[in-house]
Design brief:
It comes from Brassica rapa subsp. trilocularis. The protein has about 750 residues and is an alpha+beta fold. It contains 26 helices and 29 strands. Helix 14 runs parallel beside helix 21.
Length: about 750
């Protein structure tokens, strides 16, 4: 569980918080196997016996005072009695007990009644494939699923379904694959004429992977796109007999969730549905009107950037609730460059604990690698995340892909969580007093994460096991707790000196996404601009950098816009500029596809701070040869390239990696760089640490089209995209901020 705060020293009270101009909060990656310094938890059992505070329900931890019969809570100061078992337990040497030897523990819990019955539950995976598509789309999907089959552990069950104007269910347990079809009514109100269970019993549909892998592969080979003739006989006829599509995605998903839900808690504890789409749902329930993409300019009064961000129907949000109740987590893979309205569809994945992937074409898609990577990493499910604080402050907002508990405050449910998924919180003071300057009780944060994992039995490889037990998975419920003490800052300089700019960026990105969803991209940009102006003014005020003289006209020339007195704040103006140049906040007129914007919102709101930093302001490294690094970090400007003598540059933009050879590079340098060189080793290391597969490109300046690389050199670009790229992009942005700060300070 990695936890990072915006500043390691907390503001002393609300006045100090306001004076700093900074957001106050933290990010948490609960299922990360180690903390932010690379240290793992102390493991143990009997998590249900861990003492809890009688007042605030916090868990006993290393910061609590322990007496013979009682203990004092480190969060609220309440004295609670110990049970006779706990008294006996804590009479042993403390270094042998997880919760007294470490503030980061991971303890096994006993399974409750319903989970007890599921101890033999098997992992279930279902692929739902769009047949209203092309041969290329199906070829890509097949290769992705063949990669997925290699990543699935023995004992898993796999189901293959298709959708178009009908739902196809495949039985691959016999000698040849058999498909049963259920036709979808064309209108948005009608339900299926037949339950899927009646078309094919669920346990006939879900096949054991280890015995049926070849048959599943054979069934995939039989998939063909629906022909226009089939579609016209099944799909709705529009005006003058024009075809009205035939992608009954909404109906198919609803039917699949109900189908799977019948065995939830019996055959499986979590089912994962992979939905492969090649375009928008245009048939049956959950149809989406994609004409709004073309019509957004029709009315000059509508902000195009605002019009396409909200969902047009609550259907998929409601469908996600059905998925959760059925124990289903949905991953959506959209392979399309047409407008698909991900703004409406995204809820299906993010509310059910899944991921949303967007690929603009089948040619260079990393879909097979992403599938394999996603299934190959550990994940937890049925998770509950709870953040508690000491009494002086409280969590204000929480951000991330979870759903809040309807009953308890600051309790979040996460359906499925991998080791990359990150959540954020911001804080506020509970009262006007704040922290006491002379108190010996520092601020404390405790994060509790309860989760279930599927573990193969330890004797899985043991050939002596009876064949009935081999390949069976066991459920394990665990409780992970991290308790952290922070220091308070005695003055504003101490806050500034302890800032983590990457966590500040994370909270800003979450806030900006929320504002742009509610009020449009322009409002999101304005919020960011105003925040930087206020922070700069507060910093200049704190360091007494501006002399207020009567009639002083050169006030803006005195303003320190680059935070030269504080290295921790120095990166922030560049990060804000880069965020304003990111497709997340660029205007629609600059050619930002609304689906790509939604995809970035979903991706950026789960990234941990360092990865997000890389996605917003890519890192640019130079090499003198493929085996020798020249300089570890350059600014993203053409000037940096011109002033550097290095012939090779490596750009890491999180989703894209580019190796760029300058036009003046020595022709004897090997291109592309050889597999065994240092540059390749660094590229492979970067790829291994990613939650998604980055796209790798090699470009030779002067020979290849270098646009893809040059687009990332943002510092000469105009901040709002209105003017031509000029040598004054970032510089003129700073001038503008400086003028605004002068106005604000007057």
């Amino acid at each position: 569980m990695a936890v990072r705060a915006t500043a390691s020293r907390f503001p002393i009270d609300s006045d100090a918080l306001e004076a700093s101009g900074l957001p106050w909060g933290l990010t948490v990656t609960p299922f990360a196997s180690k903390d932010e310094t690379g240290i793992g938890p102390a493991y143990g059992s009997n998590g249900h016996l861990l003492p809890r505070c009688e007042n605030c329900y916090a868990y006993f931890n290393t910061y609590c005072e322990l007496d013979q019969w009682a203990w004092t809570c480190s969060l609220c100061g309440t004295l609670s009695g110990l049970s006779s078992d706990a008294i006996a337990r804590y009479s042993y040497p403390h270094d042998s007990i997880p919760e007294t030897s470490s503030s980061f523990v991971d303890l096994e819990l006993p399974l409750d009644g319903s989970e007890e019955e599921m101890t033999q539950a098997r992992p279930v995976y279902v692929a739902a494939i769009d047949l209203s598509s092309s041969e290329e789309f199906l070829e890509l999907t097949k290769s992705a699923l063949l990669a997925a089959l290699e990543a699935l552990s023995p004992g898993s069950l796999f189901g293959l379904a298709t959708f178009s104007h009908k739902i196809g269910l495949y039985d691959v347990q016999g000698p040849i694959p058999v498909v049963k079809n259920v036709f979808i009514p064309p209108d948005a109100e009608s339900k299926l004429p037949l339950e899927l269970e009646d078309a094919m019993p669920l346990l006939q549909f879900l096949a054991p992977v280890e015995t049926c892998k070849d048959r599943i592969a054979a069934a995939l080979e039989t998939l063909r796109p629906i022909t226009s003739w089939e579609r016209s006989s099944g799909a709705a006829q529009g005006i003058d007999g024009v075809l009205m599509g035939g992608r009954g995605f909404g109906t198919a998903m609803e039917a699949l969730f109900n189908y799977l839900g019948s065995e939830f808690g019996n055959t499986f504890a979590l089912a994962r549905v992979f939905a492969f789409m090649s375009g928008p749902p245009d048939y049956g329930r959950g149809q989406l009107d994609t004409s709004r993409y073309g019509e957004q300019y029709a009315s000059k009064r509508v902000d195009a950037d605002r019009a396409l961000l909200p969902e047009q129907t609550p259907f998929y949000k409601d469908l996600a609730t059905i998925a959760v109740q059925s124990g289903v987590c949905v991953d959506v893979f959209a392979v399309t460059n047409e407008y698909t309205d991900l703004a409406s569809l995204k809820f299906l994945s993010i509310k059910s604990g899944g991921s949303l992937f967007l690929y603009s074409s089948t040619d260079d898609s990393t879909l097979p690698q992403d599938m394999f990577r996603m299934l190959n990493r550990p994940y937890a499910f049925n998770c509950v995340l709870r953040l508690r604080t000491s009494t002086e402050f409280k969590p204000l907002h929480s951000y991330g892909h979870f759903f809040p508990d309807p009953q308890y405050e600051n309790l979040q449910h996460i359906i499925c969580c991998d080791s990359y998924a990150t959540y954020a919180y911001d804080f506020d003071f509970a009262n006007n007093t704040g922290f006491s300057r002379h108190s010996r009780e520092p601020p404390v944060v405790q994060i509790a994460f309860q989760y279930t994992v599927v573990v193969p039995p330890e004797g899985l490889q043991n050939s002596e096991l009876p064949s009935s037990s081999r390949g069976k998975h066991l459920l394990q419920r665990r409780l992970r707790i991290r308790t952290m003490q922070f220091e308070t800052a005695q003055n504003i300089n101490e806050i500034y000196d302890s800032v983590d700019h990457e966590v500040v960026l994370s909270l800003l990105v979450h806030k900006v996404i929320l504002v742009s969803l509610e009020d449009g991209v322009r409002e999101g940009r304005a919020l960011l601009h105003d925040w930087l102006v206020i922070l700069t003014a507060q910093y200049n005020d704190a360091y007494n950098l501006v002399q207020y003289k009567n009639g002083n006209k050169s006030m803006s020339s005195q303003i320190d816009i680059t935070f030269s007195q504080c290295p921790q704040l120095e990166p922030l103006p560049r990060l804000v500029f880069a965020l304003l140049r990111n497709p997340l906040l660029r205007f629609h007129e600059e050619g930002v596809h609304p689906d790509y914007r939604i995809y970035l919102q979903c991706l950026f709101s789960v990234l941990e701070p360092s990865s997000l930093h890389c996605g917003i302001y890519p890192s640019l490294t130079s090499y003198s040869t493929p085996d020798k690094q020249a300089y570890p970090r350059h600014s993203l400007s053409r000037a940096a390239l011109l002033t550097s003598d290095s012939p090779i540059f490596f750009l890491d933009a999180y989703t894209t990696l580019i190796v760029f050879y300058t036009s003046t590079a020595d022709p004897s340098l090997p291109f592309p760089p050889p597999q065994d060189c240092l540059l390749r080793k660094n590229i492979n290391m970067v790829k291994q640490g990613r939650s998604i597969t980055p796209k790798l490109m090699f470009i030779r300046g002067g020979k290849d089209d270098a646009t893809a690389f040059e687009n990332y050199l943002i510092e000469e670009q105009d901040v709002d995209g209105s003017g031509f790229a000029s040598a004054r992009g970032f510089v003129s942005f700073l001038d503008d901020i400086s003028q605004s700060v002068a106005e604000y300070m007057k």
